[in-house]
User: Fold this.
Amino acid sequence: MPRHPQVSPAVAAIPGSVYSSLAGRLAALQAAGEEVFPLHVGDTWMEPPEGCRMEDLTVAEYPGMHRYSSPHGLPALVAALAERTTARTGCRTVPSEILLAAGATGALGAVVGAIVAPGEEVLITAPFWPLVSGIVRSFHGVPVHVPFYREADSPEAALEIVARHRTPATVALYVNTPNNPTGRVLERPIVEALAEWARREGLWILADEVYEDYSWGGPHTWTRPLAPERTFSAHSFSKAYGMAGNRCGWVVGPAAAMRDVRKISTHTFYCAPTAAQIAGLRCLQGPGDAWVATARESYRTVGEAAARRLGVAPPGGSTFLFLDVADRLDERGLGGLLEDCAERGLFVAPGPSFGPFPTAIRLCYTAAPPEVVLRGVEALAEVLGR
Amino acid sequence: MPRHPQVSPAVAAIPGSVYSSLAGRLAALQAAGEEVFPLHVGDTWMEPPEGCRMEDLTVAEYPGMHRYSSPHGLPALVAALAERTTARTGCRTVPSEILLAAGATGALGAVVGAIVAPGEEVLITAPFWPLVSGIVRSFHGVPVHVPFYREADSPEAALEIVARHRTPATVALYVNTPNNPTGRVLERPIVEALAEWARREGLWILADEVYEDYSWGGPHTWTRPLAPERTFSAHSFSKAYGMAGNRCGWVVGPAAAMRDVRKISTHTFYCAPTAAQIAGLRCLQGPGDAWVATARESYRTVGEAAARRLGVAPPGGSTFLFLDVADRLDERGLGGLLEDCAERGLFVAPGPSFGPFPTAIRLCYTAAPPEVVLRGVEALAEVLGR
Assistant:
């Protein structure tokens, strides 16, 4: 039983870092002074709004700002988010329904820790954000990968797909719109059908909406108003305002269950960083909206240009293109294609990180300034012969 | 099986916030302009060293400082910590043995997630830091509370105690020196005996050493050099440099297992906050040591004065006094005594948060400036009739 030097069997099923094999290669090119196109990570090249950066947060203005915040979150920020959530989604939201977290990652981890018992299953619509599968495994749940975003072209098709994967062990459905990596924005009738199905089936819903501000293929549909009694929606200052390194996101869910979610968050990261929360509050109360408006146009423009050059449909939202490259794979497989990219300084993420997609790649068109991204896209077009 | 609106059975066994019932009371007194003595939280009143505050970290000097760091940690900080760990502990330490985390809480959570399977037991020497028990439960392990710090007065006694609680399901031993809440600094022969016992028994060791810089009852003994193949030691910028709100700590452990620990950290908080890591690096390379020297003298002076006034032995380390108040409890029990304290604006933490200690209280003598702490101690002395 006690098994030093072995670890927990569950951890063996979790993949290690998706990008670590690329990191050394990237660093070597940079050290050699070569231009690189690091489009494999989901991040933004833009600095956060002025007034909302760490350098703007002084001890004189915020004495004690390096001390713990409440595990729940700074009361002023919780209140501001409750008000904003009510205004945006039309679903009346109160502070007890909100938790500030170590990014949306910490938020979703705390939810999974609270609602999933060992061996229970979470339906994960795919292609999916690479971390969600490992989050479920970290708490000893079973992620069930459900190819969805490229197949579910109607509410009926959506329901047929999720129902086919549901078992007696299913406790929750994970939905992500706008979607990372496909860029798909789910149409309202589909989100409505999924919420209604989850209600009928007695399932929790994990609604990953961190790209809610970056939807241009159609309006973003908030899931929580459709089933507030069972939906946990995850949101992020990282994606909205270029603050990924701040590690601050939040989750909104039913108050009774949120008490249990807070138990897990308290025991996995205690509280969201205090300075990050102050920065978030300043964003909400000040330049956040203007920053988003600028970022949105910039992202959309480069995303559409990249899609045009690569001969694929323009992205509906989020900050990614997900390309099938089966026609360009040789006997070296996907690894060979990634290698050809890396030789040109271009780094993209491999399809298998996002589910059963052995012939796909993901490119983040906001990870570098537009002109750099477009040079990287040229390199990719060359590799793909497009 | 699917059980909305129920949550995971494991989460029910985790206590909610220890302090939330006091928070409202405290806020009301503050709003009424009353002086309060919030000595229930483990934190410091001191601001971090100048040059290491958020306001000191500019985008001009650190472009991209609001973006993700590597999930492993900023390479320069990892390297600096490896070097420092080698120098301090005499145990040669390399970057692959280190992980930056969302505080020591996130660090210990990632370790527990990696090494404990559902139902397996962790021996938790008590009185203990309140969160460690919930950390084990969050990952579906079983915390076994082992009254230790007030009983283990020799290596033989220490071994007898831990051996009595070991079962076939035991996978790890949690040891915390300097100890929160008792202030005890474990003597080297005891730490050596525990390390040797863990090796004989095939157990992992979780060495919580976040108060390593605050030991004056005797020298701090690092556990890892005694059993590097099985020890994960947790450390914290929070406690060392007054940066609890930054959420940045680190863990050092055997490289092979650290790969698995990083899998859990990636999926519970992704990376430590980037700005917090830069602040930590500046601390290590600059004013950190001087700040610690000042804090140590200040903490020691106020801790000894508080102990003297309350008629207990001076603390050996950490930042707490743990008092037995059985002689002053009336029919209202411990709650009545906490109430009497709160009426005087004084907040202390209840003994049951730290294990089976129904007649104890914990006071943090660094949570407010010394003169405020000492007025709070006067209030407590009055309640206790000392």
